[in-house]
Backbone:
């Protein structure tokens, strides 16, 4: 795998927090990285940036709703918090066709094996969002049955806290993921050596 | 349902009324006949739940008497903090309760309860109410109580190769240690 | 098909078979497992499919091992436990006050009802008087939650059968309910609003007008749904006559709630074993005799309309109760109001004791049952007189509903499998606890 020392997020030049909606135009990240006026003016870009842009605009999630967070995940597809504006309303049931695994809900030890299997069946590039407190850290269930954080078995890109997160909070997490990817941050399986 | 009329149940030991509920204690070996009697003669055609409770360590720490609401306040023994009362002792380690309901006017409910120790088993009541299938499997899985004659007594909620029965009092809560938290 | 039973060390005791009622379709060997008929088992035609814990239909982590002969389901076994969270064990190590946050996450679609059943059980042990305003508000929120649960059921079931646009319509109304919940309790789901003794906080000022707007809007939305589905030939073909559960089978299998009422048994705990103030409101209980998926769908649709009626009556009553207390004033159990903490020493001590040690519940055991959107939801609580529960057990209606999958699945096709599992409305958190 990677031999050079793991790059920190700040090496990408990301310093500022994303401003909340509505922000028009390119995000702070892209501006800080020196989004090229020339590129924008002439409409040219590197192939990588174009590919990343395309991946961001149609990152299809996998139907991995486990518990209460699944209801809130279903409601981001609903009409009020419309996920289709980000091109993501197509929740693929087959992990082979999915890019994003939103682990929404508590993961029991019995479910950990199917979770890892689903993650392995996804094709690169793939991202994982740990939605809710239970997926991030085991939440309020510090007991024999629940995996204390899904990052013990899959590498996680974004953690969305709260129990369950508001649909807007989950969308914030998704948008941050998009921007991080646009900025060039590699997906989690390339950044950490956990469970690769 | 009132506490009268329960003496005829097979294996009858005692009957108690508390909080508006009737608890009938029955011998464990006779529980299947008792349930059949309750269903046929007394009309309890609906099995609501099968629950087991583990009383290991019951009353070991001692609890002070409750001095809260008007129902429990006793002016003559104020401020009963400390080990001044112990809860009523239980006959054996496990209680297996069958919650019954009769689907008729008045919704009579009853609880048939039997007491067993670790290692003893209880006859299965799947032949009386088929719904007991999964309830008994769950109690076997989590509490380790064996039900004789159950057609498919295997683990239900935990993995098939799990060791131990988590809901017992001598099974640790598990999880990971968290700083500054005592029992959680 | 068999699931290997636990190795029995003692001499094998005779296995008992479940009772067979006249015309019963409960499988003979194990009531919850549909076995492949002996003649078919020897042929090569049977294909075993794993309808795994992660599957396109939105019911959470249920695993069905299905034997198929072509398109017909000839064998079925349900494997649950993928969401087993150890609620009952966790609650034994939390004080009574903190333990209220746990039941909500068990039945996470009908969360207010799950909170309610635990709070009612503890109040029964405490023999505490709950003020009228709290009772009526609890009833209002539980009915709102019933509508929420049925909307989620309708949206997801219709989505799975192909009526994709129903999802968006039902979740639009669901967002209105979430707005009301957020206004009252601060968060959309899992509100922890019901406390032992009443409610956590008073009802905010703008709630009644907004609730009235919802109540005016909801019947029109229900008409929309009926208009979309009830005359749709595809929906009718896929749901009528599918997954029939007879009344005797339903009672023998312990079904309750809409599943029982759709099989023709007229039983509703709100009316027959009443709790809160349901005996003071006027509502009908829908009962349909057919026992198929369509009947269950109709029962839930009608229940939504009845819930709207109940909410309207609750609003009328609540608006007259402005200024009344919303929680019991027993300071040994209920936290004192915060402004008193600055002036009264006793309040400070009570607050301290309740928050750190927790209030104590007298010794005893109770079982309380309510009519949750899924059926009879019950809570069995054993207290040893201390600040923490000794044993808490939740009677989960979804757990029992999934026991009926094998019975409903006779002579079904694979496509009907989805419809049947959806119509039983099982929430996996409730099933696995």
Residues:
């Amino acid at each position: 795998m990677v031999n050079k020392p793991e790059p920190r997020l700040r090496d990408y030049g990301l310093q500022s927090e994303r401003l909340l909606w509505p922000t028009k135009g390119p995000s702070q990240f892209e501006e800080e990285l020196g989004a090229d006026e020339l590129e924008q003016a002439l409409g040219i870009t590197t192939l990588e940036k174009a590919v990343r842009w395309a991946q961001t605009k149609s990152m299809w999630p996998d139907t991995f709703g486990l518990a209460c967070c699944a209801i809130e995940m279903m409601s981001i597809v609903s009409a009020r918090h419309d996920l289709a504006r980000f091109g993501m309303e197509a929740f693929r049931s087959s992990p082979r066709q999915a890019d994003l695994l939103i682990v929404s809900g508590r993961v029991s030890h019995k479910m950990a094996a199917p979770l890892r299997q689903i993650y392995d069946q996804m094709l690169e590039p793939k991202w994982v969002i740990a939605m809710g407190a239970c997926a991030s850290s085991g939440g309020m269930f510090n007991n024999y049955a629940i995996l204390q954080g899904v990052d013990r078995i899959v590498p996680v890109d974004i953690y969305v806290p709260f129990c369950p997160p508001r649909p807007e909070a989950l969308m914030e997490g998704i948008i941050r993921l998009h921007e991080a990817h646009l900025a060039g941050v590699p997906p989690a399986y390339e950044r950490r050596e956990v469970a690769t | 349902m009132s506490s009268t009329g329960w003496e005829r149940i097979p294996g009858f030991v005692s009957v108690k009324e508390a909080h508006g509920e009737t608890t009938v204690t029955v011998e464990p070996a006779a529980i299947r006949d008792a349930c059949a009697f309750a269903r046929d003669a007394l009309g309890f055609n609906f099995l609501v739940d099968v629950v087991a409770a583990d009383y290991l360590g019951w009353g070991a720490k001692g609890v002070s008497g409750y001095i809260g609401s008007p129902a429990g306040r006793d002016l003559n023994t104020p401020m009963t903090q400390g080990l001044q009362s112990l809860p009523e002792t239980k006959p054996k380690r496990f209680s297996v309760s069958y919650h019954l309901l009769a689907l008729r006017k008045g919704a009579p409910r009853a609880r048939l309860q039997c007491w067993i120790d670790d290692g003893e088993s209880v006859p299965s009541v799947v032949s009386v109410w088929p719904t007991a299938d999964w309830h008994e499997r769950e109690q076997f899985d989590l509490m380790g109580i064996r039900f004789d004659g159950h057609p498919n007594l295997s683990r239900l909620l935990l993995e098939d190769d799990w060791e131990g029965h988590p809901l017992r009092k001598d099974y640790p809560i598990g999880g990971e240690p968290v700083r500054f938290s005592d029992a959680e | 098909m068999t699931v290997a039973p636990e190795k029995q060390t003692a001499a094998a005791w005779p296995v008992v078979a479940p009772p067979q009622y006249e015309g019963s379709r409960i499988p003979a060997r194990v009531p919850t497992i549909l076995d492949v008929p002996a003649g078919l088992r020897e042929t090569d035609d049977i294909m075993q499919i794993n309808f795994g814990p992660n599957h396109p239909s939105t019911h959470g982590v249920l695993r069905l091992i299905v034997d198929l002969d072509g398109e017909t389901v000839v064998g079925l076994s349900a494997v649950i436990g993928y969401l087993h969270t150890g609620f009952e064990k966790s609650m034994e190590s939390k004080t009574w006050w903190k333990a209220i946050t746990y039941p909500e996450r068990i039945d996470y679609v009908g969360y207010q009802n799950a909170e309610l059943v635990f709070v009612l059980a503890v109040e029964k042990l405490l023999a505490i008087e709950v003020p009228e305003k709290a009772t009526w508000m609890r009833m209002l929120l539980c009915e709102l939650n019933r509508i929420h649960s049925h909307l989620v059921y309708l949206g997801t079931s219709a989505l799975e059968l192909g009526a994709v646009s129903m999802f968006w319509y039902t979740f639009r109304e669901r967002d209105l309910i979430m707005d009301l919940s957020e206004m009252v309790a601060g968060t959309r789901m899992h509100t922890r609003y019901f406390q032992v003794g009443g409610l956590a906080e008073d009802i905010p000022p703008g709630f009644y007008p907004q609730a009235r707007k919802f109540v005016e809007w909801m019947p029109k939305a229900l008409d929309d749904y009926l208009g979309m589905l009830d005359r749709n030939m595809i929906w009718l073909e896929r749901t009528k006559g599918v997954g029939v559960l007879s009344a005797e089978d339903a009672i023998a299998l312990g079904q309750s709630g809409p599943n029982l009422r759709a099989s023709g048994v007229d039983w509703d705990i709100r009316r027959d074993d009443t709790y809160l103030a349901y005996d003071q409101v006027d509502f009908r209980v829908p009962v349909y005799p057919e026992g198929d998926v369509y009947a269950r769908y109709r029962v839930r649709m009608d229940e939504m309309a009845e819930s709207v009626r109940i909410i309207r009556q609750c609003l009328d009553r609540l608006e007259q109760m402005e200024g009344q207390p919303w929680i019991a004033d027993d300071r040994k159990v209920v936290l004192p109001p915060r402004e008193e903490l600055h002036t009264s020493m006793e309040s400070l001590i009570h607050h301290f004791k309740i928050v750190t040690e927790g209030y104590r519940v007298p010794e005893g055991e109770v079982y309380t049952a309510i009519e949750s959107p899924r059926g009879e939801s019950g809570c069995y609580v054993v207290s040893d007189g201390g600040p923490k529960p000794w044993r808490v057990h939740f009677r989960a209606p979804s757990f029992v509903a999934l026991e009926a999958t094998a019975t409903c699945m006779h002579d079904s096709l694979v496509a009907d499998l989805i419809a049947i599992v959806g119509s039983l409305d099982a929430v996996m958190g409730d099933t696995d606890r």
User: Anything to note?
Assistant: Residues 13-24 of chain A have pLDDT under 50 and may be disordered.
